[in-house]
Structure prediction request, 297 residues.
Amino acid sequence: MKTSEELKELVREKYSDIALQKKEANAASCCGATDVSGEVYNIMTDDYSALEGYNPDADLGLGCGLPTQFAQIQKGDTVIDLGSGAGNDCFIARHETGETGKVIGIDFSEPMINKARINAEKLGFNNVEFRYGDIEKMPVSDGIADVIVSNCVLNLVPNKPNVISEIFRVLKPGGHFSISDIVIVGELPESLKKDAEMYAGCVAGAIQKDEYLGHIKEAGFENITIQKEKTILIPDDILEKYLSKDGIDSFKNADLGIFSITVYAERPGSPGDKTREKKKVKLSELDTSCEPASGCC
Prediction:
């Protein structure tokens, strides 16, 4: 069993390599970490191209949702993106927060940081910056963010409660987050859980859905809501690398699900002098099949 530091180093090395891969290879694999599927092109990613602020050079096809679409970002907000990659969600957020706001991307892969900075310079964005750092120890001060977003990153971190506590620390009172991530219901086969590629591929590092939502509640967040949920299906030609034919059949027939969820939650307290016309999240207004965070809302 690898230690937390060994797992983090594995992810750092893998995503430094992924920074140099084409989007097509990343989208047709599990977060760019596994072999490419010939059966399915888009395994986890959602289509960003219709969102304002989208820049194709920053889209590496590594996400599992569209957290910035649900993040209720307002003009002048300070937004932090955890695991910012080549800057995709940061540039979408920058469109929402405008020139009067600020966007900070945090990533611990130097090639990703370098790629993101080049993209920001090409776009002439002076209010978007990228900081090298570990999201378990964010290189930002207490209470500076109005909104935090993240796309398919927390499942890569061994100690998820640490990250959630850090999110609480850096959010302003009354601030909120919208995070897309991979969770599971049921038990993954041991061969998937133990495999390093599947860990870096956002699957083996995922935890139980109820446990994930429980960590958010335990950190002190309120109004926890699942804004979007979709099932992730791993193609046979990828599963064949980890499971026998019988194992694949058992995996498919088991009471098991791998899901991408986009979760919203608020840090308690007043946002202070700034007036925020924060629209309450209503599940009936969402364009997807959603459900409240079980036991947490």
About this structure: DSSP finds eleven helices and seven strands in the chain. The first helix runs from residue 4 to 18.
